[in-house]
Amino acid sequence: MGTLLISKIREEFPDRMMATFSVVPSPGNSDTVVEPYNATLSVHQLVENSDETFCIDNQALYDICMRTLKLSNPSYGDLNHLVSVVMSGITTCLRFPGQLNSDLRKLAVNMVPFPRLHFFMVGFAPLTSRGAHSFRAVSVPELTQQMFDPKNMMAASDFRNGRYLTCSAI
Q1: Residue 163 placed within a domain
Q2: What's 113's domain CATH number?
Q3: pTM of the entire structure?
Q4: For each of the chain's 170 residues, which pLDDT tens digit applies?
Q5: Who contacts 120 (Cβ-Cβ below 8 Å, separation ≥6)?
Q6: Where is the Tubulin/FtsZ GTPase domain (predicted)?
């Protein structure tokens, strides 16, 4: 259903930028048998019809809630809060005026080295839980370290052995 909507929107508005936030399943906490099949079959549509795909992994969301935010039993509300904070952060420049603001087209031009390689892994810092009301100052080196820390990535992968093709701090 989702990929059909994406392809229909692309047909109607071919000149518009299409950004998707795709939650991919993980074998550790999968509820249904068809989740991996749905994710695998949808990748082709995302390659063809999306300009930017922000990948979010269920296992990484659970790990962030349990390890970083110290939630013993995270609810879907906690997971959705993390996703909404990421979506809000990425689209902030579209909603508020400013001199340094960019748009989705500029982000795609700067971040996508080849048209079919438009799958982004999202890191977020500083991470706070929904109920946290305490604030503390974070230095620039500490914030940078948190952004690239695998514990703050929304996709369960170890980035220490790989290379970054492009990187952006928004």
Answers
A1: no
A2: 3.40.50.1440
A3: 0.85
A4: 588 999 999 999 999 999 999 988 877 777 778 888 888 889 999 999 999 999 998 889 998 988 888 888 888 898 899 999 999 988 888 888 777 667 788 888 888 888 888 998 888 888 776 666 567 788 899 988 888 888 888 888 777 777 777 888 77
A5: 52, 53, 54, 55, 111
A6: 2-65
